[in-house]
Amino acid sequence: MRSRGNRSKEWKKGLFRVSQGGQMPYTHLLVAVAPTPESQVLIKKAVSIARPVNAKVSLITLATDPELYNQFAAPMMENLREVMQEETREFLNELARHADYPIERMTIACGELGHHIKDFCRSHRVDLVICGNHNHSLFSRATCSAKSIVGSCGVDVLLVSLEKG
């Protein structure tokens, strides 16, 4: 492995992946967040990995579709959808403000999260996805939504346990 001078010691502090040429630091982390307080835990974890190697950090979340909740209120759906989009944007902006680290991109996706994460990883050269796990029972772990992310995104995935309150 080539020496990187003084930076080598700092570089070793970060999380890295093993590749054919040796150890490589992660360069772009994608954090899958939900509008819950636990998302702060995921951001802190991402920043602790990214900061020592100056890696990029991006955020992705799912927008809630109001049609899933009330199919009888069709005339109000568009307004409700806009309000929910704005609340989701504000949630991401708030996470970014409290990250104490620059956030490269913030994305709001609709539909299957695993599909959007896979596309984002390819488009933006992400090499580590970080997501949370609220599932504490054996059955929940077996059907966890993170399972589809692990199986489809094509990059390393860090699944962070989010303890019950």
Automatic annotation (TrEMBL):
Domain of life: Bacteria
Residue ranges constituting the UspA domain according to the UniProt record: 26-160
Main location: cytoplasm
UniProt keyword terms in alphabetical order: Cytoplasm
SUPFAM superfamilies for the chain: Adenine nucleotide alpha hydrolases-like
Pfam families per record: Usp
GO cellular component: cytoplasm
Family: Belongs to the universal stress protein A family.
Function of the protein: Required for resistance to DNA-damaging agents.
Protein name per UniProt: Universal stress protein
Protein source organism: Klebsiella pneumoniae 30684/NJST258_2
